[in-house]
Amino acid sequence: MAALAFAALIGATPVHAQQAAPPDTDAKASETAEIVVTGSQVARAGFVSPTPLTSVNTDDILRVGAVNVADALNQLPSMKPSVTPSSVSNLSKLAGGNYMDLRGLGYLRTLTLIDGKRYVPTTPEGVINTNLIPQALIGGVEVVTGGASAAYGSDAVAGVVNFKIDNKFNGVRGSLQGGITDHNDNRNYLASLAFGTKFAGDRGHLLLGFEAAENNGVKDGNRRKWAGNRSIIVNPANDIDPSQPYLVHVNDARASYAAPGGVINSGVLKGIQFGPNGTTMPFRYGNYLTQDNTMDGGDGDPLASPYVLVAPTKRWSAYAGATYEITPAITAYANFTYATSRLNERSIPSDDVFTIHADNAYLPASLRNALAAAGETSFAFGRSLEDYGVGAIKQKATTWQGVTGLRGGLGGSWTFDASVAFGKTHSLTLFTGDVIKSRRLLALDAVINPATGGIVCRSTLTDPTNGCMPLNLFGVGSASQQAINYITGTSVRDWRQSQQVVDLVIRGEPFSTWAGPVSIAFGGQYRNLNVDVTSDPISATPNVSLFRVGNVKPYSAREAVKEGFVEAVIPLAQDASWAKNLDVDLGGRITDYRTSGTVETWKVGVNYAVNSSIRFRATRSRDIRAPNINELFAAGQTLLGGVTDSKTNATYNVSQTTGGNPYLKPEKANTFTAGVVLTPSFVPRLSISIDYYDIKVKGAIASLTAQTIVNRCNSGDAASCLLVRRGDDGRINNILLAPVNFQQIITNGIDVEANYRVPIGAGVLDLRGLVSYVNKLDLTGQDNDVTHFAGNTDQPVLDGPGGTPHWKGSATASYATDNYRFGVTGRYIGGGVITRDDFTLDWNHVNGRVYVDLSGELTVFKTSNGGKIALFGVILNAFDNDPPFTGYQFQTARQLYDVIGRQYTAGVRFNF
């Protein structure tokens, strides 16, 4: 549906901030031209923002067919689908959500608004899951693709995505659709209904909307033929011959230290594994074997164990809004939104290595005798938890917000808009069937009770009432349900947030220059955000990670923000021989954060229209992102992730505990954009825009990756070693991660858009092409080490900057009449190198992918007043083009390429 969304977006006449819509006698074009787009706080007829902005109108969204509008927006060249249900399905804090990410700078650096106002955050990081925005009534979306902190506030480092409610809608409209893939999964449906009417002699307007959607997801990524158990592993030949690649791609990547039923990794019994019912057999080692590491083939546990490819989600939302004209000059407005979403998915499988004592009661007698003969009292035992402790993630999120305000005239050219908003979000996540590590260690130490001859936990001999149930892990399915119940529990993460916002904006034209009136906007905002994080008693234990995943530590925190801004548009030339018009856009904002102090942002923009065919624009701005409450005060949460540990020459999953840093300061970004817009008179209805952007973020907030911390510690960095905790067996038990202002991010590139629209016969043909070239996306770390992400497919962390191809583009042809519409879209996502670091691979480049999408609509019933019922359908990725095999992040770069495959969607929509 994402591609259908995009096909609809680019197949219709777009509304650009670059220029007004090309002249056209078509009624649709006239309707489109009425939309005012500024991307600025200044509201002036004919004003065009110097910052590049793309806008999508109501009709575009209505015929998109996407379950989530984010699916459409993520196809725009400036957007990156970094955080979607298919790209972060294994990251519980974001799983199942859609978060906007402009320029690939990370979702925390894109500000999401509703009707130009802040919405209550859906996570303690202060961001909005667009799944919880009522979308049935979205009347358009503005995407500001440049720094906009001076106009909109903090977090707009990469830009702004503003969802606009269709507040003037009158009538009834709705849709019902369903979809499925070639693999008989990712089944989904969407139902929406909207109603709008005037009342009180047209002085009032009522708007109601409801929407429900569900997607059963893709519960096992290994079902895709391109996935399987492929991965990248260490090449042992590199130890002997450094000219050999350090890493190699393999089709059957397995752990050499763990097996589904367990394998002995040390001593006289090394190489013995356990099959069904605890039977013993030799463990077959595969190729590319390194000591206690990974291998290709053999009997080891698959490294790409079954994982969720697309998170299954359910959601519904409702909206009620009203406006009432109190006097001809003053209008009161109020609205209320409510939304809820649910997620239920399998947790992340992993392997563990334990120390087993020689007198373990479940160990076959023959093996105990062999250990005794060798004088060995214990051995290392590697085991998958696939059959006894994977667990599940169950999440329910609910959000609501109420807004009320007044807007109107103050006399002359002056207007105002004053509002108060209050909202709450509650997100409850349960990690069910979660292994309690301390209990598992007790249960694994099973011995014979000399008094009864039965099998008990060793700890029970000295503490008979401790409730420990002995655990047998020798062989798949050997663990009893009683033991599983004893060693597992439910880890809880409970987020509760509330936000109050008071807004005031005043606009007017105080005086004129020789070129026309000067327009000004000024105002202020007060924002108060409270966050309460609670968990279960086990997780809340200070400084201890008792569960395998989860272990959220409770905390409460508050952020208060006061800010004031002013923006002015000053005309310098109008209808001169050398300029059709020349405007300067100046803006500044002062923001005071209770936690991180006072910061200033500003912008200077220039619009220079030489004539009706050529216009130049440029903007220079200072933008900021203040640290969010989670980055400042989080008491800790434990997640699971893989590291390569050179000290033990092993690759394995370890717990990683995140925490906050109260000494963080706001990030600061310098942004420059410049471009030209061409609407040549000799080719009517053709528009071309070319824009260059350059963004430099200093003091970017980030945590060192777990792998970086391990590498530094193993290289002798004592400070990094303080963050690494190892067990008695030398393997890492836990890594502490905390954010600091140490990074610098630099990105620049060029965006090109071309649009041509021409009436043919009874309809209109739309042709549009978009191309984005990312020249640079560099991340500089604490030691001035530079990671080049442009032209790269790697994503080292799921929720931060990562690999972005140099080239992305699309081409669309769409033909529409009053009775039908048909569109074809081709999308190109470039390839690039696979690894971002100094490691060498056997092959280190993948080619890009081209996706072809087909969409169509047929009107089956029409009324005399313009109402209609229409059937529509779409085929996404019509040629079922698989993503490239990279080896990182679940066999491919999920944040870049289509991992779902060919999808079919069909439905009906009506509008009366």
From TrEMBL:
PROSITE patterns: TONB_DEPENDENT_REC_3
Entries under InterPro entries matching the protein: Beta-barrel_TonB, Beta-barrel_TonB_sf, Plug_dom, Plug_dom_sf, TonB-dep_rcpt-like
Cellular component annotations (GO), alphabetically ordered: cell outer membrane
Keyword set, alphabetical order: Cell outer membrane, Membrane, Receptor, Signal, TonB box, Transmembrane, Transmembrane beta strand, Transport
Xref: Pfam families: Plug, TonB_dep_Rec_b-barrel
Compartments (UniProt record): Cell outer membrane
Domain called TonB-dependent receptor-like beta-barrel: residue spans: 398-856
Signal sequence range: 1-17
Membrane topology, record value: Multi-pass membrane protein
Primary location class: membrane
Domain TonB-dependent receptor plug: start-end pairs: 49-160
SUPFAM superfamilies, sorted: Porins (SSF56935)
Family statement drawn from the similarity comment of this UniProt entry: Belongs to the TonB-dependent receptor family.
Name the record gives this protein: TonB-dependent receptor
